[in-house]
Design goal:
The structure is a homodimer. The first copy, chain A, is α/β, with parallel strands linked by helices. The first copy, chain A, has three domains: about 50 residues, 434 Repressor (Amino-terminal Domain) (Orthogonal Bundle); about 130 residues, Rossmann fold (3-Layer(aba) Sandwich), CATH 3.40.50; about 130 residues, Response regulator (Rossmann fold, 3-Layer(aba) Sandwich), CATH 3.40.50. In chain A, about 40% of the residues lie in helices and about 15% in strands. In chain A, helix 5 links the parallel strand 1 and strand 2. Chain A is elongated, with a radius of gyration of 27 Å. Chain A starts with 17 loop residues before the first helix and ends in a 9-residue tail after the last strand. The interface between A and B is large, with 50 and 50 residues. The structure holds a DNA duplex. Chains A, B: Keywords: DNA-binding, Repressor, Transcription, Transcription regulation. Chains A, B: InterPro entries: HTH_LacI, LacI/GalR-like_sensor, Lambda_DNA-bd_dom_sf, Peripla_BP_I. Chains A, B: GO terms for molecular function: DNA binding.
Amino acid sequence: MRTLGTPEPETAPRTVTIQDVARRAGVSTATVSRAIALPERVAAATREAVFSAIRETGYTPNAAARSLRAKSTKMVLVLLPGIGNSFFTPVLNALEEVFTEGGYGVLIGYTRQSRSRETHYARVIRAGQVDGVLVVTGNVPRDEEFVSVPDTVPVSLMFSEVPGTAQFSVFDVDNRGASADAVRYLISQGHRRIAHIPGAESGLEARERLGGYCDAIREVGFPLDESLIWRGASNFDFASGERAAKDFFALDDKPTAVFAAADEIALGFMRALKNRGVGIPSDVSVIGFDDTEYAVHYDPALTTMRQPRNEMGRLAAQDLLRRMAARDGGIPTSKVRLPCELVVRESVRAVE
Amino acid sequence: MRTLGTPEPETAPRTVTIQDVARRAGVSTATVSRAIALPERVAAATREAVFSAIRETGYTPNAAARSLRAKSTKMVLVLLPGIGNSFFTPVLNALEEVFTEGGYGVLIGYTRQSRSRETHYARVIRAGQVDGVLVVTGNVPRDEEFVSVPDTVPVSLMFSEVPGTAQFSVFDVDNRGASADAVRYLISQGHRRIAHIPGAESGLEARERLGGYCDAIREVGFPLDESLIWRGASNFDFASGERAAKDFFALDDKPTAVFAAADEIALGFMRALKNRGVGIPSDVSVIGFDDTEYAVHYDPALTTMRQPRNEMGRLAAQDLLRRMAARDGGIPTSKVRLPCELVVRESVRAVE
DNA sequence: ATGAAAGCGCTAACAC
DNA sequence: GTGTTAGCGCTTTCAT
């Protein structure tokens, strides 16, 4: 209370601690702590006293002190590639939702293909700043420092896999099988000359999708024509699709259909073709991969292989939540491979 | 060293602390702490001893202990609306980059228009879990708990403003002026009958953009025709644009141009028109707002008003960094309003 | 059912 | 230039 004429004392508004609450409620700090964590183990009257003291003081437990003592920060680190595309937006959404519900905060990190950023985040983990890690990227983390991450912190991988390790949970799709299915669909629509635009081949997913394309071509006995594989994608992005269009126009014997390793590649490719008067799907059919937001809104709406991004995010988060709750690897890691689903829209037509 | 026949002792691999490093280097913990924080204030020989001890032990300072002691977590909270659209992806990218460079981690939170989520994050702030907050959303945070956020934590706003407060830094654009400019451009191309698809009018930005539309129409003396304002957007999304298409088709006297309050609205609208055989821009011109990634790749490429999202992110982060570094409001808040830029592409044609 | 007390790992006065 | 010491705010035995 400020008395008339009395200048406001320069007292810094000291943050209220558990001590203040204890004093006010006439109990010990231990009791306050208990009343918060295990209300049922405190007498009803005491509990009331504590809670009103909390309300009156506006007390909020200090996170750092709690973390220090409890050796748990209630935070997870979500590592994303962080280059451009918005493929990961719904994933991050799902993750944040599940983690927040589970009482965990989400610290994000963009690795940006940079070694120094990876070591930076490895340090974050070693500093005990997070209770778990979710690596959401096509790129297997380059290890070195990463291997020295304490085993006590559970780590999960999404959309890609480190072959031959059981220490991570993995949530991904069968990129190879789904890609083969996409190409098989093209074949079922009568296409025989089918091209492929791979993603950046440094990533496992892109290589798997290329593998699936080859599988499907080979199994029907079509020749595997290298001139129909338009490499050189820098990424899963529009620009890669536009670049591939050059390969298309350079070709004498043009394909009737194209399987792009990602929707954005497909969209960039389609745009480049339309600009030069090539009709889609009248002249060339196109199928993508991912089913991102824009696929359905493009003209023509893109036929594509859907990855269940939201579901994968939810499952991965729930698994990590479970593993974090179990002290010391009480719960084994899981490998979950979800099915993709062909979404037929307008960009593929039947020929013959 | 494991001796033959001796079973591995069940010792938990105790995390290495500053104590271990001190012991190994033959110095006090204070010296280790100093060698890390202010290397120049420690004798070269000692410094070397400390650093090799650190290397040998693989020591990483514990974040919680440091935060508790230093009363600073080196983390910021970035609050996003978290509903669907990927408008914020590049913003988040820019923020993460600048904050990480500045030595801060980024905790994300999606408010999802939910009061309980806002109070949740208010609690995170009060728990001292972050040193600063960036509210990146068109929605002014509903206050209540929020006002009780301690003044010691600097808060900044992006893309929207709380009128009449100096306690936040604000980074936004002149939505009204830029919208008026967009409509003026349409007028300059000979359009006289111009419609508008507003965003969800609960948000300040959407109302400002609507205001700009009205300004531009009025200033040239055109009648302000309510039948040309197609309200009912649930959001800045495709669906809103598709819904607006119904209004378009229901109209006898059709407009020759449409100003959409966001690119995604514009794209949804265009798609719906094209589906019914209406040519863009041959029959109707469309202009958007934002210049998101897909604007340039659509067919026709969308003419739109660009918001400098990356730059706004960088500036906002830098400002917050500065304010967090200054103890106790040493640095005043700023109001930064960046210019938008008209990006002319293919979706508007000149008439007459 | 509750309290006393120890201590999580670190930093920052303050001495020397 | 370096060490001693006193906590930061909380949880958790261990008593009572």
